[in-house]
Amino acid sequence: MSRAPAGGGTRRGGLAKSPAALLTAALAGLALPAPGPLTAAPAAAQPTSPRPVAEARVFGENLRIEIDAPAGQASAEALAAALREALEIERLVDPDGDAPGGVGELNAAGGRVELAPRIYSALERALAFCVWSQQAHGPLGGQLYAAWGLRRATGGAPEPRFLQSLLETAYCERLALDPQSSTGLLDAGSRIDLWGFERGLAVDGATEVLQSAGITNGYVQLGAVTRAFGAGPREAIEAGERPPGGWVVALHPGHDERIATQYVVLRDQTLSLASRQVQTLIVDGEPKAPYVDQRSGLLVDGKLGVAAVSERALDAEALSVALFVMSPREGEFRLGGLDPVPAVRWYLGSGDGYPLITERGWSALPKWDPGENPFSRRETASPPRDR
């Protein structure tokens, strides 16, 4: 697991605990066409699978869970419990919600709040990313996100002077967590929002429920965050239709069909994407990537997307967003402080031409060439397209 340099515990003034895609991501199914690329729009139709599958809408996106286990009551109950967990996390992280111990209660309280265990641990982790990224990305960007209309569209860009007045509200030290009482205290004027963390949190929650029920092989995919665990689809592997050692995830930027699709093999890992193709913010009629640098209050240009692979889904999502916000040079520097260094792929450019692709640790990820068998050549005859 990626982690930051060691330090002290949770306290006001900063957190020193450890923080520890794909411009389109989809799991390749058993001898069936892979799902289409994922965008902020409703997910494309998924193929029928011979394995137990469950789906729901979470955070306005398609949550898909597939397990390699015998069909039956035990599998059905495990899938149902995993869906309930993801939906409960959606309720708890709502910045305006009223779930006891949730983010909404903390935002509204004006005092110390006892937090639900899932929320306490998520905020602790998100604060670690805030410190690690030097405030580029953290859990306190709620006022800035509201100004840009990330949750509720405002249509136009906020005035620069107004954004400047909000920068202090995003400082990492404005949230104090007490590990003894599992409580949080938020400074007046600040607002918690787990944008850039919440999908990973829901994926982790669903995965942990499955594993606690004895499920050892499967994947959970929410939008462009995919966590896979176990050895992969056994029947497809035995038939030679998929590589051994994990689950295959298709990776393509979606901006230019000349870019080759990559097929990454994940086992006990998560792949996440931050990209305008995944989530789009419309500002003055123009599509923008919805990621705010919390140090400047501004949206970030110059990247088509950032893919990150890490063990936990929350970490992978947070890394992809933080590295999208940072410059590539700063991102490379900050990644050097993590152990182990996660795998990252940057797609740099404006979208008008072929992007510059740079990588860190990406070559170490196992890949699969779908041209190795005739069925896969038919499967990928048409490159994935944005939908």
Describe this structure in words.
The protein is of the alpha+beta class. It has one domain: ApbE-like domains (T-fold, Roll), CATH 3.10.520. Helices cover 27% and strands 22% of the residues. The strands form six sheets. It has an eight-stranded antiparallel sheet with strand order 4-5-9-10-13-18-19-20. A three-stranded antiparallel sheet has the order 3-11-12, with no helix packed on it. Strand 19 and strand 20 form a beta hairpin. The chain is globular, with a radius of gyration of 20 Å. The protein starts with 9 loop residues before the first strand and ends in an 8-residue tail after the last helix.
Topology:
Layout: E1 10-11, E2 14-15, E3 25-27, E4 53-58, E5 61-67, H1 73-93, H2 103-109, E6 113-114, H3 117-132, H4 142-148, H5 160-166, E7 175-178, E8 183-186, H6 198-212, E9 218-222, E10 225-229, H7 234-238, E11 247-251, E12 262-266, E13 269-275, E14 281-283, E15 286-288, E16 292-293, E17 298-299, E18 303-310, H8 313-325, H9 328-335, E19 343-348, E20 356-360, H10 374-379
Antiparallel strand pairs: 1-2, 3-11, 4-5, 5-9, 6-8, 7-8, 9-10, 10-13, 11-12, 13-18, 14-15, 16-17, 18-19, 19-20
